[in-house]
Amino acid sequence: MSIFTIAAILVGLSALFGYLNHRFLHLPHTIGLVVIALAASLSIIAYDLIQPTAHIGQKVSGLLSQIDFNETLMHGMLSFLLFAGALHADFSALKSQRLIIGVMACLGTLISTFVVGAGMWWLFGLFGLAIPFIWALVFGALISPTDPVAVLSLFKTVKVPATLQAKMAGESLFNDGVGVVVFSVVVAIAASGEASMGAAEITKLFFTEAIGGAVLGLLAGYIGYRAMYGIDEPSLEVLISLALVMVTYALALSLHMSGPIAMVVAGLFIGNRGVKYAMSEATRAYVLTFWTLIDEILNSVLFLLIGLEVLVVTASPDHLWVALLAIPVTLFARALSVTIPIGVLSRWRTFTTGAVPVLIWGGLRGGIAVALALSLPENQYKAAILSITYAVVLFSIIVQGLTVKPLVEKMVR
Questions:
Q1: Over the stretch 12-48, which tens digit does the pLDDT of each residue have?
Q2: 265 or 410, which is more confident
Q3: Burial level of 204, CB count in 10 A (0-12/13-18/19+)?
Q4: Burial of 412 from C-beta contacts in 10 A (0-12 / 13-18 / 19+)
Q5: CA dist 242 to 89, 163, 290, Å?
Q6: Which structural domains are found in the chain, ordered by start?
Q7: Distance CA 314, CA 374 (A)
């Protein structure tokens, strides 16, 4: 099946399920897509159990197997989604909260990674599923970062105070990049043996990815800004922004730098300095509308895929209880990753009343965690990690996503 046909099916299903959600369920758009796609997937599985000769699930799984979820998201859609998210972010608000965002994105992600890793290693052992600690740590690394796509889509339906929104948005934008770097380091250690990588190599890899990605994003953003500054042609400036995203992300991948961090930095630069100084009012509206549409379309396709992926995630009954218990483990780790940095910083900063529970419960996981799990090398631990990741992501998007609004209304003052 051609790429165009697959894209047509995905966009068509996104439109159909979006329509059904709008008419009947009235859930937030992205959550509604996940729920309907998940219901459709489970219906196909149930029908195949009743009518084994139909093989509908096998046919749909065959179609989905043609879509490399990890490649599609991590080496394609994510570049556009992160740039669009950063483009609309308020840089002045992020700048005022930069210390908190930085500590939570870096220290918080590391705390959560090790707490989840230790907890899951203990749980695997409890249920007789022998898994080395380093592979439990791999799960901790991929599930710990909050997903910027999921978190930013949350703000379209939930109103939170500007300072709290800046913390949540900034943390999700940057801890995504940090989390991918940590994941890369831990997987490299797990795949090659714990003793094969020294502290110097790990530090070099981390700084090459993180700092290199930030410098590349800043340079690309400045080049794009200068190109836009000298003209006033809406269509061309959209093309420049599109080229900036695609070329920069491809360059980051080829140079082994963090593409996500590069996109966030470039998006913040264009979205604030570029929009303010390099665009006329008409061009500004044109560019921002274009990226809003890109964001909405790709978000819809991504959350649709998350709901459909249940057909290709092979879950063993042995993993069921571990998957269910992984949910409170990740929430406990998230609580520690929020309360420890805030507890330290509260000596110098004042936080919004109710900020801690909202930051904990609003730290959604999404497609990035599933994509990272799918990218793992084939071994005896991948199936367990993937099925548990999928369970945590579904709980996060559906349960946390649907209940965070009443939590905000009750807790934030």
A1: 999 999 999 999 999 999 999 999 999 999 998 888 8
A2: 265
A3: exposed
A4: middle
A5: 18, 30, 10
A6: 3-65 (no CATH), 69-411 (1.20.1530.20)
A7: 12
